[in-house]
Amino acid sequence: MAAVGSAASWLFRLRAAGAEGHWRRLCGAGLARGFLHPAATGKDAAQRRQVAHFTFQPDPEPREYGQTQKMNLFQSITSALDNSLAKDPTAVIFGEDVAFGGVFRCTVGLRDKYGKDRVFNTPLCEQGIVGFGIGIAVTGATAIAEIQFADYIFPAFDQIVNEAAKYRYRSGDLFNCGSLTIRSPWGCVGHGALYHSQSPEAFFAHCPGIKVVIPRSPFQAKGLLLSCIEDKNPCIFFEPKILYRAAVEQVPVEPYNIPLSQAEVIQEGRDVTLVAWGTQVHVIREVASMAKEKLGVSCEIIDLRTIIPWDVDTVCKSVIKTGRLLISHEAPLTGGFASEISSTIQEECFLNLEAPISRVCGYDTPFPHIFEPFYIPDKWKCYDALRKMINY
Amino acid sequence: MAVAIAAARVWRQSRILGQAALLLLLRRPGARGLAISHPHRQQEQQFSSLDDKPQFPGASAEFIDKLEFIQPNVISGIPIYRVMDRQGQIINPSEDPHLPKEKVLKFYKSMTLLNTMDRILYESQRQGRISFYMTNYGEEGTHVGSAAALDNTDLVFGQYREAGVLMYRDYPLELFMAQCYGNVSDLGKGRQMPVHYGCKERHFVTISSPLATQIPQAVGAAYAAKRANANRVVICYFGEGAASEGDAHAGFNFAATLECPIIFFCRNNGYAISTPTSEQYRGDGIAARGPGYGILSIRVDGNDVFAVYNATKEARRRAVAENQPFLIEAMTYRIGHHSTSDDSSAYRSVDEVNYWDKQDHPISRLRHYLLSQGWWDEEQEKAWRKQSRKKVMEAFEQAERKPKPNPNLLFSDVYQEMPSQLRKQQESLARHLQTYGEHYPLEHFDK
């Protein structure tokens, strides 16, 4: 009895102190000290993980949409979803783990607010999630599906490409799944490696019938997502996961729309056109400042926003003016969407070009883990490509 | 006592309990030995490790201490529900649906009209008039029995061998033919291969070639119907081969977990093109998979139109009332080739096919029933054969004569609105045809 008592109280103290306390006590007792705290030698041997390769640049506070609130990217997504479910009684949100709020917190609070029949988990099956979403949309209800990581969208590729994209065309417009939107976290995150970093937009660019949209910021995300949800065609909305917390700006509380298939010239310039989407827009913004400062070069920066159908006219107009084009994306070079832009622009603007079109992209490898800093098309690679283009 | 309570608190936090303390707590009266007053503590009692029941969240089951693998029962599988024998006689009168004469005649006429249309369109492909065709020989009972048990507004997702459902819903011959010919009357605007029918008015979702893709879609549609309080069921047809696809597994699992009012109707016709069922699955067909997903399941004689009707009727009633899925596996036989691109004598014997055609055919079984009821006779049979053939031939000749749709329809409906880049491509084709039009079959197409 006494033994139990003392054992019990030891356990009690241990538990009460918490895990950290436990480790500290072990350390203090001299146990496993070397293991837990490798000796620091000279400069900080515990190598810190890289800081981000970009700096998020918020846009100026929007004035035309009423009251705004400071939101990060995932909060702006939640806001868009909240607005959608409020306006559209048929709208439902589903996918893996969305009920408790989602692994990136994009759906926090929505189940409590709108009910478990409207915000619910599905079994772990991407082809099921998208197929199910198509079915909801066929009845005319609004289906907002989440694929937990864009890297896992491939089981649903058949449903997206062979079914969703072709539903209206193949039925002669008797049926469609236009009220389907698929949202998915996208792009590099610093440590995601092969299966938490992919940017698969190029696979879908080859598929007439769907729209693919990628925002660069919270304000853009909310407006574009609302447009996707309301668009009468099935849309895929990729959310740059590295921006979920890192991107913070003022976002209107009320719903608003940013049009699809319209690129945005976010900075005008004379000498070279820089095109990117998602996180990479912030990289090329910095490249533009570097170019201005070091080379005296004036860059026009375009955020493509919609991958398909893409805004050929805006990019053409810009290249006709500048004569030089640099396109940059994290996805691998070969067959990446930059190749489509490059091919179209050289067809349309051949005589305006002063230099070959430059593509600064990921390498033709799977997305590596420890080598990420070397893999990504960072500002130095973009700057170097720009410099070569200027000196061509 | 104080030690016991302290021990209990410790146990709650750390789940570590010495033998002595365990005995201590068991000595108190009551199974769990703890004070029951506090609701928090009451909840914990469910997690008590004191009584020896499994606590795993993943299964609701008892322990067993004998090592035994569950034997899949394939020697004698799930029994096959039937109402009529092979001669069309009701076996158990209490299962007779007692359908009125007009309804049963509609069954018969739908099946035979489909059969007649199949013969003529199959032949028309052989003659190069249409590019492709798939017949429904032997499976007419599965279509008509199930369609008759549904409401007209119940949404149908099919695979490609369910034309009888449309026939039962009075889809006109003209439109069947229009789709096969891809002519100007085709509601599908000539975009798909023959037999890829669709009809919004009759709630029949347009067929697509990829197999089983319709299964999770049907589940989503059923979920939406449930949310809309529509009192509608969704029925989803597929073959035993398509049931091997991942989409089938996805659909079953979603339907059960999300409590959808859906009927999964599997036509098990023995073959997926040339692949017999022995190479398609090793378990007890498709019906046996249902319980694995938590789905109420039944196997029926697909060539017995009343059995199909009864099962579908009851499944519909309960699916809507209880918001849960049902799985019906209708056993049947594909008497025809897979399609006009197939010659099944390469992989099965003519004798086997003849057995089904002559001895166990849904149409003849129903005809025997009609004859024994005095609702049909040889004269009516002759007259109807002549009349149905005439109707089909007329529709056929009309369909042949009509032009194809305007080539501009190649470009529309990709999106709801035509993107500017696509419009440019459309204009580029128009310009191309101005110069090179003689090399294209423009004379057959609508101007």
From TrEMBL, chain A:
Which InterPro entries does the record cross-reference, listed alphabetically? THDP-binding, Transketo_C/PFOR_II, Transketolase-like_Pyr-bd, Transketolase_C
Q: Which organism is it from?
A: Callithrix jacchus (White-tufted-ear marmoset)
Query: What are the subcellular locations of this protein?
Result: Mitochondrion matrix
What is the catalytic activity of this protein?
N(6)-[(R)-lipoyl]-L-lysyl-[protein] + 3-methyl-2-oxobutanoate + H(+) = N(6)-[(R)-S(8)-2-methylpropanoyldihydrolipoyl]-L-lysyl-[protein] + CO2
One GO term (biological process): response to nutrient
Q: Which GO terms describe its cellular component?
A: mitochondrial matrix
Q: Which PANTHER family match?
A: 2-OXOISOVALERATE DEHYDROGENASE SUBUNIT BETA, MITOCHONDRIAL (PTHR42980:SF1), 2-OXOISOVALERATE DEHYDROGENASE SUBUNIT BETA-RELATED (PTHR42980)
This chain belongs to the protein called 2-oxoisovalerate dehydrogenase subunit beta, mitochondrial
What keywords are annotated for this sequence in UniProt? Mitochondrion, Oxidoreductase, Transit peptide
CDD domains from the xrefs? TPP_PYR_E1-PDHc-beta_like
| Domain (Transketolase-like pyrimidine-binding) ranges | 71-246
Return the broad EC class. Answer: oxidoreductase
Primary location group: mitochondrion
Q: Which domain of life is it from?
A: Eukaryota
Q: What does this protein do?
A: Together with BCKDHA forms the heterotetrameric E1 subunit of the mitochondrial branched-chain alpha-ketoacid dehydrogenase (BCKD) complex. The BCKD complex catalyzes the multi-step oxidative decarboxylation of alpha-ketoacids derived from the branched-chain amino-acids valine, leucine and isoleucine producing CO2 and acyl-CoA which is subsequently utilized to produce energy. The E1 subunit catalyzes the first step with the decarboxylation of the alpha-ketoacid forming an enzyme-product intermediate.
Q: EC number(s) in its UniProt entry?
A: 1.2.4.4
Q: Which cofactor does it need?
A: thiamine diphosphate
Identify the Gene3D superfamilies for this entry.
3.40.50.920, 3.40.50.970
**Gene Ontology molecular function, alphabetical:** branched-chain 2-oxo acid dehydrogenase activity
* Mitochondrion keyword on record: yes
Q: Which Pfam families match?
A: Transket_pyr (PF02779), Transketolase_C (PF02780)
Subunit comment: Heterotetramer of 2 alpha/BCKDHA and 2 beta chains/BCKDHB that forms the branched-chain alpha-keto acid decarboxylase (E1) component of the BCKD complex. The branched-chain alpha-ketoacid dehydrogenase is a large complex composed of three major building blocks E1, E2 and E3. It is organized around E2, a 24-meric cubic core composed of DBT, to which are associated 6 to 12 copies of E1, and approximately 6 copies of the dehydrogenase E3, a DLD dimer.
Automatic annotation (TrEMBL), chain B:
Question: E.C. number, please?
Answer: 1.2.4.4
Kindly provide the name given to this protein in its UniProt entry.
2-oxoisovalerate dehydrogenase subunit alpha
Q: Check the record and name the Pfam families matching this protein.
A: E1_dh
Give yes or no: UniProt keyword Thylakoid.
no
- Gene that produces this protein: BCKDHA
According to the entry, every stretch annotated as the Dehydrogenase E1 component domain falls at 108-407
Any one GO BP annotation for this protein: branched-chain amino acid catabolic process
Required co-factor(s) are:
thiamine diphosphate
Q: Which family does it belong to?
A: Belongs to the BCKDHA family.
Keyword annotations? Metal-binding, Mitochondrion, Oxidoreductase, Potassium, Signal, Thiamine pyrophosphate, Transit peptide
Single GO MF descriptor: branched-chain 2-oxo acid dehydrogenase activity
Is the keyword Mitochondrion in the record?
yes
The entry's function note states:
Together with BCKDHB forms the heterotetrameric E1 subunit of the mitochondrial branched-chain alpha-ketoacid dehydrogenase (BCKD) complex. The BCKD complex catalyzes the multi-step oxidative decarboxylation of alpha-ketoacids derived from the branched-chain amino-acids valine, leucine and isoleucine producing CO2 and acyl-CoA which is subsequently utilized to produce energy. The E1 subunit catalyzes the first step with the decarboxylation of the alpha-ketoacid forming an enzyme-product intermediate.
One GO cellular component assignment for this chain's record is: mitochondrial matrix
Q: What is the lineage of its organism?
A: Eukaryota, Metazoa, Chordata, Craniata, Vertebrata
Signal peptide per UniProt: 1-33
